[in-house]
Specification:
Shape: globular
Strand content: 15-25%
Distance between the termini: 18 Å
Structural class: alpha/beta
Number of helices: 13
Radius of gyration: 20 Å
Order of helices and strands: EHHEHHEHEEHEEEHEHEHEHHEEEHH
Strand order of the largest sheet: 10-9-11-1-12-13-2-14
Number of strands: 14
Length: 395
């Protein structure tokens, strides 16, 4: 029987400040606890797997259901990021086995004039904004001028990103993608941001909304990841959501994009019905994009509760040799003044028939242990940065 691993990244679901949180301005951050301050937060199925038995994970005292002393049905541990960053690209690369000792460049004062000049020259469109901004606020401020002039809205954040927003009626999405491809080519060397992101939107002034046709143009990983290792071994690597974008398509054998968490879960369930051998790598982005960055505590709580509600469907489709891993790539505490990512520990919950219940491995020193362990389970040769914990979690 073919072995399959389903690795789900709950984007930004951190479980408490990392030891070096002060270096990133994130002392006191705890994304899951912040979401749990909402009375409607409810994750009983994750609780049964051991989610709240992970060191440092906690919820608001009102949630009595989370305090039940049980033997977790899965294996759990807390992951500490070894890379110098707290963004999506570095987090996912580390999960896949590459530690990044140097942070990717950020531009807190906007991008240099020479880069902006090159972008304007090659695209034939002038640039608006060129400052760090909230994605929803930037289109409210510059959207009308963009529609009147056709100039592109370029902005960044605390992360290593260059984002380009454009109204779909002014710049068709395919043209926006080409503009972003140009920006990706220009963003090299000292300007090598982790991602160039296309941010299409629709609507009228005062009523703009971003669409689901966002697209990330990432740096290519500097060396082979677990995805390449698995693909090179002749096995399958299925990518759901923005996984294909994050790895610039490298190491992926089949991919599907998603509109939201619901769509991501549905497409994961569809892949679970397929016969394949290898890895299905899923990113559920709503936690981060819709709620963390917008400081929406009730929305974040509802998204976590919704995932938990759908979890039994995923569990029911696991075959005898399947393993399910649920983790995160960084934090994004929705209760802090900042709307940026937070430097936090991340959870790792592992389930499936081969997994030894009630296993708690404490704290692991790097996300890269995940990629190394997956390759170990699939019997794939690798030279990744992590250490396998496979023998500690199997029956």
């Amino acid at each position: 029987m073919s072995k399959r691993v389903f690795l789900i990244v709950l984007d930004s679901v951190g479980i408490g400040e990392a030891p070096d949180a002060a270096d990133f301005g994130d002392v006191g951050s705890h994304t899951v606890y912040a979401a749990s301050t909402d009375e409607h937060f409810y994750m009983p199925h994750m609780q049964k797997l051991g989610f709240f038995a992970i060191d440092g994970n906690r919820v608001h005292e009102r949630h009595e259901w989370a305090k039940k002393q049980i033997t977790p049905a899965g294996a759990v541990m807390r992951m500490q990021e070894a890379s110098r960053g707290k963004d999506t690209t570095i987090g996912h690369w580390e999960i896949a086995g590459i530690i990044s000792p140097k942070a990717m460049p950020t531009f807190p004062n906007g991008f240099p004039k020479d880069l902006i000049h090159s972008l304007e020259s090659e695209t034939g469109r002038k640039v608006l904004c060129n400052m760090p901004y909230s994605g929803t606020e930037v289109i409210e401020k510059y959207g009308k001028e963009h529609m009147e002039t056709g100039n592109i809205i370029v902005y960044t954040s605390a992360d290593s990103v260059l984002q380009i927003a454009a109204h779909e009626d002014i710049i068709p999405v395919e043209e926006l993608y080409k503009i972003c491809e140009t920006a990706r080519r220009l963003c090299q060397g000292p300007y090598a941001v982790g991602r160039v992101i296309a941010r299409p939107f629709i609507g009228t002034p005062g009523h703009f909304t971003r669409t689901s046709r966002r697209h990330d143009f990432s740096l290519t990983p500097p060396r082979d990841t677990m995805l390449d290792n698995i693909k090179n071994a002749g096995q399958d690597v299925l990518a759901v959501g923005k996984i294909n974008d994050i790895f610039a398509g490298k190491g992926v054998t089949k991919m599907t994009r998603t509109e939201d968490n619901e769509d991501g879960i549905n497409k994961t369930l569809a892949y679970m019905d397929e016969d394949f051998h290898g890895l299905c790598f899923i990113n559920l982005v709503d936690f981060d994009m819709k709620y963390g960055h917008r400081n929406d505590v009730p929305g974040y709580a509802a998204a976590l509760s919704y995932f938990d509600k759908r979890l039994p469907e995923i569990m029911a489709k696991l075959r005898p040799e399947d393993i399910l891993m649920i983790t995160a790539d960084h934090g994004c505490d929705p209760s802090t003044p900042s709307t940026d990512h937070s430097r936090e520990y991340t959870p790792l919950v592992i389930a499936g028939k081969p997994v030894l219940p009630g296993t708690n491995l404490g704290t692991r020193p790097t996300f890269a242990d995940i990629g190394t362990t997956i390759c170990d389970y699939l019997k794939v040769p690798q030279k990744l940065d992590g250490t396998s914990f496979l023998k500690n979690i199997l029956k």
